[in-house]
Design brief:
- There is one protein chain.
- Helices cover 36% and strands 5% of the residues.
- The protein contains six helices and two strands.
- It has a two-stranded parallel ribbon with strand order 1-2.
- The chain is globular.
């Protein structure tokens, strides 16, 4: 069939030219309240700075619940397909998983997470070389959140310097 022939002859995608990728997910943050999406108040200067230096995408949640949405982002599947839809569910290990794919492609993967619904207990640490859950019990303390933000900012600063000084080499993550 012509369709099968066309698929069989399609070129293998090239590796991306970039070596640094930051995915920032903030539960319940409205993009229409961020300056990088046109909001007039300076509500998130650090995020606005990252957006100005990189590529910013508009994402849409696959669900109103964090677990279903993050599983959808990491698997590329709707909740009904990835099966992480109830409190005790986790994405099946046989599904392709974005952090694993990035790690296997040579990226250093790190995750700083503060939501127990998408924590290690449910398998959301798959593929991350460095993984830190900042909220072991109850609500996250401001000091924990600020410390995680500083680690992200330090890592981002090192990545920026590495790209400027060494091309596309990936920096180590502490």
């Amino acid at each position: 069939s012509p369709l099968l022939f066309a698929l069989a002859c399609s070129p293998v995608p090239e590796r991306p030219a970039f070596r640094n990728l930051i995915v920032i997910m903030i539960d319940t943050l409205r993009s229409d309240h961020l300056p990088s999406y046109g909001y007039e108040r300076d509500t998130a200067p650090f995020l606005a700075g990252l957006a100005a230096e990189g590529v910013q995408l508009q994402g849409y949640a696959a669900s109103s619940w964090t677990k279903e949405s993050i599983a959808g982002l990491f698997t590329g599947l709707a909740p009904q397909r990835h099966q992480a839809i109830s409190r005790s569910d986790h994405p099946p290990a046989e599904l392709p998983y974005l952090p694993e794919l990035l790690r296997d492609a040579g990226f250093v993967t790190a995750c700083y997470i503060g939501n127990l619904n998408v924590g290690r207990k449910w398998g959301f640490d798959r593929g991350f070389v460095h993984y830190a859950q900042t909220r072991p019990v109850g609500k996250a303390a401001a000091a924990e959140v600020n410390a995680a933000a500083r680690r992200l900012e330090d890592h981002t600063r090192r990545m920026r310097g590495d790209v400027k000084n060494h091309g596309n080499a990936a920096p180590p993550v502490e």
